[in-house]
Amino acid sequence: xxxxxxxxxxxxxxxxxxxxxxxxxxxxxxxxxxxxxxxxxxxxxxxxxxxxxxxxxxxxxxxxxxxxxxxxxxxxxxxxxxxxxxxxxxxxxxxxxxxxxxxxxxxxxxxxxxxxxxxxxxxxxxxxxxxxxxxxxxxxxxxxxxxxxxxxxxxxxxxxxxxxxxxxxxxxxxxxxxxxxxxxxxxxxxxxxxxxxxxxxxxxxxxxxxxxxxxxxxxxxxxxxxxxxxxxxxxxxxxxxxxxxxxxxxxxxxxxxxxxxxxxxxxxxxxxxxxxxxxxxxxxxxxxxxxxxxxxxxxxxxxxxxxxxxxxxxxxxxxxxxxxxxxxxxxxxxxxxxx
Length: 339
Known about the structure:
By secondary structure, the protein is mainly α. 53% of the residues lie in helices and 7% in strands.
Protein backbone atom coordinates (compact mmCIF):
# COMPACT_ATOMS: atom_id res chain seq x y z
CA UNK A 1 0.00 0.00 0.00
CA UNK A 2 1.13 3.57 -0.67
CA UNK A 3 1.63 5.86 2.34
CA UNK A 4 -0.07 9.25 2.76
CA UNK A 5 2.84 11.17 1.28
CA UNK A 6 2.76 8.95 -1.82
CA UNK A 7 -0.99 9.28 -2.30
CA UNK A 8 -0.55 13.07 -2.50
CA UNK A 9 1.47 12.55 -5.65
CA UNK A 10 -0.14 12.18 -9.04
CA UNK A 11 -0.16 8.70 -10.57
CA UNK A 12 1.46 7.69 -13.84
CA UNK A 13 0.70 4.42 -15.63
CA UNK A 14 2.89 3.03 -18.40
CA UNK A 15 2.80 -0.33 -20.15
CA UNK A 16 5.19 -2.05 -22.56
CA UNK A 17 4.56 -5.29 -24.40
CA UNK A 18 7.03 -8.16 -23.87
CA UNK A 19 7.23 -8.74 -27.60
CA UNK A 20 10.04 -7.96 -30.00
CA UNK A 21 13.10 -6.06 -28.82
CA UNK A 22 13.17 -2.69 -27.11
CA UNK A 23 15.05 -0.12 -29.13
CA UNK A 24 17.14 2.97 -28.54
CA UNK A 25 13.94 4.81 -29.44
CA UNK A 26 12.16 3.25 -26.44
CA UNK A 27 15.08 4.30 -24.27
CA UNK A 28 15.21 7.89 -25.52
CA UNK A 29 11.45 8.36 -25.60
CA UNK A 30 10.53 6.61 -22.36
CA UNK A 31 12.92 4.47 -20.30
CA UNK A 32 15.56 7.09 -19.59
CA UNK A 33 12.90 9.38 -18.12
CA UNK A 34 11.50 6.78 -15.72
CA UNK A 35 14.04 7.26 -12.89
CA UNK A 36 13.30 11.00 -12.67
CA UNK A 37 9.53 10.45 -12.86
CA UNK A 38 9.57 8.10 -9.86
CA UNK A 39 10.78 10.94 -7.67
CA UNK A 40 7.74 13.12 -8.31
CA UNK A 41 4.94 10.68 -9.26
CA UNK A 42 3.45 7.41 -8.09
CA UNK A 43 4.66 5.31 -11.01
CA UNK A 44 3.03 2.08 -12.09
CA UNK A 45 4.93 0.15 -14.76
CA UNK A 46 3.11 -2.78 -16.32
CA UNK A 47 4.43 -5.57 -18.54
CA UNK A 48 1.34 -5.94 -20.72
CA UNK A 49 1.54 -9.62 -21.60
CA UNK A 50 -2.23 -9.83 -22.20
CA UNK A 51 -1.88 -7.30 -25.00
CA UNK A 52 0.96 -9.33 -26.47
CA UNK A 53 -1.23 -12.36 -27.22
CA UNK A 54 -3.30 -10.50 -29.82
CA UNK A 55 -0.48 -11.84 -32.01
CA UNK A 56 0.43 -15.53 -31.67
CA UNK A 57 3.27 -16.03 -29.19
CA UNK A 58 5.52 -18.95 -28.38
CA UNK A 59 4.64 -19.62 -24.70
CA UNK A 60 8.21 -20.24 -23.56
CA UNK A 61 9.44 -17.14 -25.38
CA UNK A 62 6.68 -14.99 -23.86
CA UNK A 63 7.52 -16.13 -20.33
CA UNK A 64 11.21 -15.45 -20.95
CA UNK A 65 10.59 -12.01 -22.43
CA UNK A 66 8.49 -10.97 -19.42
CA UNK A 67 11.48 -11.51 -17.14
CA UNK A 68 13.82 -9.88 -19.66
CA UNK A 69 11.61 -6.80 -19.82
CA UNK A 70 11.52 -6.66 -16.02
CA UNK A 71 15.32 -6.71 -16.05
CA UNK A 72 15.40 -3.87 -18.60
CA UNK A 73 12.97 -1.82 -16.51
CA UNK A 74 15.10 -2.25 -13.39
CA UNK A 75 18.37 -1.73 -15.27
CA UNK A 76 17.04 1.59 -16.58
CA UNK A 77 16.88 2.84 -12.99
CA UNK A 78 13.38 1.95 -11.86
CA UNK A 79 13.37 1.30 -8.11
CA UNK A 80 10.78 -1.34 -7.08
CA UNK A 81 10.70 0.26 -3.61
CA UNK A 82 9.49 3.53 -5.14
CA UNK A 83 7.43 2.18 -8.05
CA UNK A 84 5.13 -0.71 -8.85
CA UNK A 85 6.35 -3.05 -11.57
CA UNK A 86 4.30 -6.14 -12.41
CA UNK A 87 2.81 -8.38 -15.12
CA UNK A 88 -0.66 -7.50 -16.39
CA UNK A 89 -1.77 -11.15 -16.32
CA UNK A 90 -1.02 -11.32 -12.58
CA UNK A 91 -3.83 -8.84 -11.81
CA UNK A 92 -7.17 -10.26 -12.97
CA UNK A 93 -8.93 -6.90 -12.56
CA UNK A 94 -7.49 -5.82 -15.93
CA UNK A 95 -9.51 -8.44 -17.81
CA UNK A 96 -12.59 -7.98 -15.62
CA UNK A 97 -12.77 -4.23 -16.11
CA UNK A 98 -12.03 -4.60 -19.83
CA UNK A 99 -15.21 -6.66 -20.29
CA UNK A 100 -17.30 -4.05 -18.50
CA UNK A 101 -15.76 -1.22 -20.53
CA UNK A 102 -16.40 -3.16 -23.74
CA UNK A 103 -20.07 -2.52 -23.02
CA UNK A 104 -19.39 1.24 -22.95
CA UNK A 105 -17.31 1.37 -26.14
CA UNK A 106 -18.74 1.81 -29.62
CA UNK A 107 -17.83 -0.29 -32.65
CA UNK A 108 -17.19 2.83 -34.70
CA UNK A 109 -14.58 4.02 -32.22
CA UNK A 110 -12.68 0.76 -32.46
CA UNK A 111 -12.93 0.63 -36.25
CA UNK A 112 -11.15 3.97 -36.47
CA UNK A 113 -8.12 2.82 -34.50
CA UNK A 114 -5.09 2.88 -36.76
CA UNK A 115 -3.22 0.16 -34.88
CA UNK A 116 -6.01 -2.32 -35.60
CA UNK A 117 -5.75 -1.55 -39.29
CA UNK A 118 -1.96 -1.83 -39.24
CA UNK A 119 -1.85 -5.10 -37.30
CA UNK A 120 -4.70 -6.60 -39.30
CA UNK A 121 -2.71 -5.93 -42.47
CA UNK A 122 0.42 -7.54 -40.99
CA UNK A 123 -1.42 -10.54 -39.51
CA UNK A 124 -4.15 -11.18 -42.04
CA UNK A 125 -4.39 -14.84 -40.99
CA UNK A 126 -5.17 -13.90 -37.37
CA UNK A 127 -7.56 -10.94 -37.27
CA UNK A 128 -9.00 -11.84 -33.88
CA UNK A 129 -11.49 -10.06 -31.61
CA UNK A 130 -8.73 -9.21 -29.14
CA UNK A 131 -6.88 -7.33 -31.86
CA UNK A 132 -10.04 -5.30 -32.43
CA UNK A 133 -10.86 -4.60 -28.78
CA UNK A 134 -7.31 -4.12 -27.45
CA UNK A 135 -7.95 -0.35 -26.90
CA UNK A 136 -10.59 -1.27 -24.32
CA UNK A 137 -8.11 -3.41 -22.39
CA UNK A 138 -5.67 -0.51 -22.68
CA UNK A 139 -8.32 1.77 -21.18
CA UNK A 140 -8.88 -0.69 -18.34
CA UNK A 141 -5.13 -0.80 -17.67
CA UNK A 142 -5.03 2.95 -17.16
CA UNK A 143 -8.37 3.57 -15.47
CA UNK A 144 -7.95 0.81 -12.88
CA UNK A 145 -5.24 2.85 -11.18
CA UNK A 146 -6.98 6.23 -11.49
CA UNK A 147 -3.93 7.37 -13.44
CA UNK A 148 -3.58 11.13 -13.80
CA UNK A 149 -1.17 10.86 -16.71
CA UNK A 150 0.23 8.42 -19.25
CA UNK A 151 3.69 9.04 -20.79
CA UNK A 152 3.30 9.16 -24.57
CA UNK A 153 5.15 10.60 -27.53
CA UNK A 154 3.47 13.48 -29.34
CA UNK A 155 2.63 11.08 -32.18
CA UNK A 156 0.91 8.68 -29.78
CA UNK A 157 -1.45 11.14 -28.14
CA UNK A 158 -4.41 9.80 -30.16
CA UNK A 159 -3.96 6.40 -28.53
CA UNK A 160 -5.01 7.90 -25.21
CA UNK A 161 -8.09 9.62 -26.58
CA UNK A 162 -10.29 6.52 -26.61
CA UNK A 163 -9.43 5.91 -22.93
CA UNK A 164 -10.50 9.45 -22.12
CA UNK A 165 -13.70 9.03 -24.16
CA UNK A 166 -14.63 5.81 -22.35
CA UNK A 167 -13.90 7.32 -18.93
CA UNK A 168 -15.95 10.43 -19.64
CA UNK A 169 -18.85 8.36 -21.02
CA UNK A 170 -18.90 6.13 -17.93
CA UNK A 171 -18.62 9.12 -15.60
CA UNK A 172 -21.48 10.91 -17.32
CA UNK A 173 -23.74 7.96 -16.47
CA UNK A 174 -22.51 6.94 -13.01
CA UNK A 175 -20.72 9.97 -11.58
CA UNK A 176 -17.03 10.60 -11.05
CA UNK A 177 -15.84 7.01 -11.00
CA UNK A 178 -12.71 7.33 -13.14
CA UNK A 179 -9.93 9.87 -13.25
CA UNK A 180 -9.70 11.10 -16.84
CA UNK A 181 -6.00 10.78 -17.70
CA UNK A 182 -3.92 13.39 -19.47
CA UNK A 183 -1.05 12.67 -21.84
CA UNK A 184 2.41 13.28 -20.42
CA UNK A 185 4.25 14.27 -23.58
CA UNK A 186 7.91 13.35 -23.59
CA UNK A 187 10.50 15.98 -24.38
CA UNK A 188 10.88 17.51 -27.82
CA UNK A 189 13.43 15.70 -29.96
CA UNK A 190 12.78 12.31 -28.36
CA UNK A 191 11.35 10.71 -31.50
CA UNK A 192 13.90 8.36 -33.07
CA UNK A 193 13.43 7.35 -36.68
CA UNK A 194 14.20 4.13 -38.54
CA UNK A 195 17.81 3.81 -39.67
CA UNK A 196 16.75 2.55 -43.09
CA UNK A 197 13.66 4.73 -43.59
CA UNK A 198 14.17 7.92 -41.57
CA UNK A 199 10.72 9.20 -42.51
CA UNK A 200 9.22 6.54 -40.21
CA UNK A 201 9.53 6.10 -36.45
CA UNK A 202 11.96 3.41 -35.28
CA UNK A 203 9.99 0.29 -34.38
CA UNK A 204 10.93 -3.00 -32.75
CA UNK A 205 8.66 -4.77 -35.25
CA UNK A 206 10.76 -3.60 -38.21
CA UNK A 207 13.62 -5.63 -39.76
CA UNK A 208 16.63 -5.77 -37.44
CA UNK A 209 18.82 -3.42 -39.50
CA UNK A 210 16.24 -0.65 -39.05
CA UNK A 211 16.64 -0.32 -35.29
CA UNK A 212 19.22 -0.45 -32.52
CA UNK A 213 18.29 -2.84 -29.74
CA UNK A 214 18.96 -1.81 -26.15
CA UNK A 215 21.03 -4.98 -25.83
CA UNK A 216 23.00 -4.71 -29.07
CA UNK A 217 26.72 -5.21 -28.60
CA UNK A 218 28.98 -2.29 -29.65
CA UNK A 219 29.98 -4.01 -32.91
CA UNK A 220 26.33 -4.44 -33.85
CA UNK A 221 25.62 -0.78 -33.04
CA UNK A 222 28.46 0.39 -35.25
CA UNK A 223 27.44 -1.94 -38.09
CA UNK A 224 23.83 -0.77 -38.11
CA UNK A 225 24.67 2.93 -37.87
CA UNK A 226 27.34 2.60 -40.54
CA UNK A 227 24.60 1.31 -42.88
CA UNK A 228 22.09 3.98 -41.85
CA UNK A 229 20.51 5.92 -44.70
CA UNK A 230 21.74 9.48 -45.16
CA UNK A 231 21.72 11.33 -48.52
CA UNK A 232 24.02 12.31 -51.38
CA UNK A 233 24.84 15.99 -50.78
CA UNK A 234 27.41 15.37 -48.04
CA UNK A 235 26.52 18.34 -45.81
CA UNK A 236 25.94 17.77 -42.10
CA UNK A 237 23.08 19.99 -40.95
CA UNK A 238 19.86 19.55 -39.01
CA UNK A 239 17.02 19.68 -41.54
CA UNK A 240 14.42 16.96 -40.81
CA UNK A 241 12.31 17.77 -43.86
CA UNK A 242 15.05 17.69 -46.48
CA UNK A 243 17.72 15.61 -44.70
CA UNK A 244 15.80 13.15 -42.50
CA UNK A 245 18.59 10.56 -42.26
CA UNK A 246 21.31 13.00 -41.24
CA UNK A 247 18.92 14.83 -38.91
CA UNK A 248 17.99 11.54 -37.22
CA UNK A 249 21.62 10.80 -36.41
CA UNK A 250 22.20 14.35 -35.17
CA UNK A 251 19.09 14.12 -33.00
CA UNK A 252 20.31 10.85 -31.45
CA UNK A 253 23.66 12.47 -30.58
CA UNK A 254 22.03 15.56 -29.11
CA UNK A 255 19.49 13.65 -27.05
CA UNK A 256 21.97 11.16 -25.61
CA UNK A 257 24.82 13.58 -24.89
CA UNK A 258 22.81 16.64 -23.90
CA UNK A 259 24.72 18.82 -26.37
CA UNK A 260 22.67 21.38 -28.27
CA UNK A 261 22.15 20.86 -31.99
CA UNK A 262 23.93 24.05 -33.05
CA UNK A 263 27.11 23.06 -31.22
CA UNK A 264 27.13 19.56 -32.70
CA UNK A 265 26.57 20.84 -36.24
CA UNK A 266 29.34 23.41 -35.76
CA UNK A 267 31.77 20.71 -34.61
CA UNK A 268 30.81 18.47 -37.53
CA UNK A 269 31.13 21.20 -40.17
CA UNK A 270 33.35 20.11 -43.02
CA UNK A 271 33.38 16.49 -41.90
CA UNK A 272 31.88 13.54 -43.74
CA UNK A 273 29.02 11.19 -43.00
CA UNK A 274 31.49 8.56 -41.82
CA UNK A 275 32.53 10.91 -39.01
CA UNK A 276 28.87 11.59 -38.19
CA UNK A 277 28.11 7.88 -37.98
CA UNK A 278 31.15 7.21 -35.80
CA UNK A 279 30.11 9.96 -33.41
CA UNK A 280 26.55 8.63 -33.31
CA UNK A 281 27.84 5.12 -32.57
CA UNK A 282 30.05 6.44 -29.76
CA UNK A 283 27.10 8.26 -28.18
CA UNK A 284 24.81 5.23 -28.37
CA UNK A 285 27.39 2.78 -27.02
CA UNK A 286 28.28 5.09 -24.11
CA UNK A 287 24.62 5.60 -23.22
CA UNK A 288 23.75 1.90 -23.31
CA UNK A 289 26.80 0.55 -21.49
CA UNK A 290 25.54 1.15 -17.91
CA UNK A 291 22.09 -0.25 -18.70
CA UNK A 292 23.52 -3.33 -20.43
CA UNK A 293 25.93 -4.00 -17.57
CA UNK A 294 23.14 -3.83 -14.96
CA UNK A 295 20.84 -5.91 -17.19
CA UNK A 296 23.39 -8.73 -17.36
CA UNK A 297 23.62 -8.75 -13.56
CA UNK A 298 19.85 -8.81 -13.10
CA UNK A 299 18.98 -11.39 -15.75
CA UNK A 300 21.31 -13.85 -14.01
CA UNK A 301 18.98 -13.79 -10.97
CA UNK A 302 15.60 -14.82 -12.38
CA UNK A 303 14.16 -15.62 -8.96
CA UNK A 304 14.74 -12.02 -7.88
CA UNK A 305 13.01 -10.77 -11.03
CA UNK A 306 10.02 -13.04 -10.48
CA UNK A 307 9.78 -12.11 -6.80
CA UNK A 308 9.84 -8.43 -7.77
CA UNK A 309 7.02 -8.92 -10.28
CA UNK A 310 4.89 -10.91 -7.84
CA UNK A 311 5.40 -8.36 -5.08
CA UNK A 312 4.47 -5.62 -7.53
CA UNK A 313 1.35 -7.52 -8.56
CA UNK A 314 0.17 -7.64 -4.94
CA UNK A 315 0.56 -3.87 -4.65
CA UNK A 316 -1.12 -3.29 -8.01
CA UNK A 317 -4.01 -5.58 -7.14
CA UNK A 318 -4.71 -3.75 -3.88
CA UNK A 319 -5.26 -0.55 -5.89
CA UNK A 320 -7.02 -2.10 -8.88
CA UNK A 321 -9.53 -4.07 -6.86
CA UNK A 322 -10.87 -0.91 -5.20
CA UNK A 323 -11.65 0.61 -8.59
CA UNK A 324 -13.14 -2.63 -9.90
CA UNK A 325 -15.44 -3.07 -6.90
CA UNK A 326 -16.63 0.53 -7.21
CA UNK A 327 -17.41 0.00 -10.91
CA UNK A 328 -19.21 -3.28 -10.23
CA UNK A 329 -21.37 -1.62 -7.59
CA UNK A 330 -22.17 1.34 -9.84
CA UNK A 331 -23.42 -0.81 -12.72
CA UNK A 332 -25.55 -3.00 -10.44
CA UNK A 333 -23.69 -6.29 -10.05
CA UNK A 334 -24.88 -8.35 -7.07
CA UNK A 335 -22.99 -7.56 -3.87
CA UNK A 336 -20.39 -10.02 -2.57
CA UNK A 337 -21.52 -9.48 0.99
CA UNK A 338 -24.63 -8.13 2.72
CA UNK A 339 -22.52 -6.62 5.49
